[in-house]
C-alpha cells in the first residue's frame, strides 16, 4: 500500500501559499504604480480597483496550481507561474473592461492582450517572481510543517528529516556496473520521485531538497554522498570519478541543518550505499566503489562517535545495500544469491526477490520498499510490519533502490 500527504494539509498549503503570492503581487504592483502618478486617494482607489479582479483570479489559479504540486520543483513552479499569471491577467482584465461598459468584442480582446506588455506587465513579472520564491517557500514550509514535533502516543519526537535531490535531466546517462543499459523514461522517473517524496512526507519526514545537478546524472542517488552518524554527517568520496562533484551541495545543506561535518578524502573512496547501520554497528561494503583507505578513514571517524565498523567484501552487486538492508528490529535482510557473507551479520533473513532486499525504515513498525517485490512485502507483513510500497522502476534500471533516493536524519 502507499500513503500520501493528508489532503487537508495539501489544501491548506495551497491556499496559504496562493494567498501570499496574490497579496504580495497585488500590493507591490500598486506600490510601484502609485508614485508614477499623482498619489491621491482617487488614484490609489483606481489602481486598486483595476488590479483587484486580476489578483483574485490569480489567487484562485495559484491555489489550483499549488494543489496539484506545481510548486514542488522550481522549474514546474516557473512554468506554472507564467501560465497562471498570463491567464489571470487575461481573465481579470476582460472582466474589468466588460464591467466598465464595453461590449465583449474583438477590440476588447485585442485591448486585453495589449495589457500584457503595458499596464499589466509589472503585475506579470511580479507574479512570476513571487510564485517561484515566496509561493514555493510558503507551500513547502506549510506542507512539511518544519520543526514541528511528531507525536506517537504520548511521547513527542523531533520530526525526522529526509534530504532528497530531484532527478537530473541527464538521468539516463547514469553509471552502470552490473546491469545492461536499457532506455530510461525520465518523465516517469520524475513522477516516481515525486511520489516517493510525498510518501516520506506522509510518513512524517520534513523534506529538504538539495539543488538539482543536471551535470551529474546520478545525483538523484543522494545516499551515496553522505552518511549520518548521530549528529555527524560524513561527506563521502564517491568511487566513480563522474560523481565526485555531487557531495559539495549536499555538504552545504546538511551543515545548514546543524550537523557536524566530517569528510572522506582521496585516495580514500566511500559511497554511502556501501554503509549499513544496525544500532551501533556499521557494516561497510568493500567493493568497486569503496576502497580500503575509505573504510580506514570512515572507521577513524565512526569509532570516537561510538560506532563499531565491520567491513564486508562485496563483488556481486554495486553496493552493500544493493544486497542487504535491515528491518526496524535490526534483522539484516537480503536476497541470498547476492549475499556473499551472511555469517557476518548477527541475524540474517533471506527474502525471495532481489529488489525486496532494500527497505527504508519509517518507524519501529513500518518499512518503505519497492513495489517490484510483492512476495517480500507479504513476508514482511506476515512478520507484523506495515509495508508501504512505491514504484521506482526507472531508478532500478540504473541500479538504484529505495534507500538511494534519500538520506534520513532522526533526532
Description:
The chain is elongated. α1 packs antiparallel against α2 (41-67) and α1 runs antiparallel to α5 (121-144). By secondary structure, it is of the alpha/beta class. The longest helix is centred in the first third of the chain and has 27 residues, at 7-33. α7 (247-256) links the parallel β6 (232-235) and β7. It starts with 6 loop residues before the first helix and ends with a strand. Mean pLDDT is 88; it is low at 1-5 and 144-156. The chain has a three-stranded mixed beta sheet, with helices on both faces. 40% of the residues lie in helices and 17% in strands.
Overall structural class, as computed from helix and strand content, comes to alpha/beta
The termini sit apart by 27 Å
Strand numbers in spatial order across the main sheet: 4-3-17
Q: Largest beta sheet, briefly? A: 3 strands, mixed
**Unreliable stretches, pLDDT < 50, 5 or more residues?**
1-5, 144-156
Number of helical regions: 10
Question: Main traits of this protein?
Answer:
alpha/beta; 40% helix; three-stranded mixed sheet; 17 strands; single chain; 411 residues
List the helices and strands and how they pair.
Layout: H1 7-33, H2 41-67, H3 74-99, H4 106-114, H5 121-144, E1 150-152, E2 155-157, E3 161-165, H6 186-202, E4 206-210, E5 226-229, E6 232-235, H7 247-256, E7 260-263, E8 275-278, E9 281-286, H8 292-302, E10 308-313, E11 324-326, E12 332-334, E13 348-350, E14 359-363, E15 366-370, H9 374-382, E16 386-390, H10 393-396, E17 407-409
Parallel strand pairs: 3-4, 6-7, 9-10, 12-13, 15-16
Antiparallel strand pairs: 1-2, 3-17, 5-6, 8-9, 11-12, 14-15
Helix pairs in contact: 1-2, 1-5, 2-3, 2-5, 3-4, 3-5
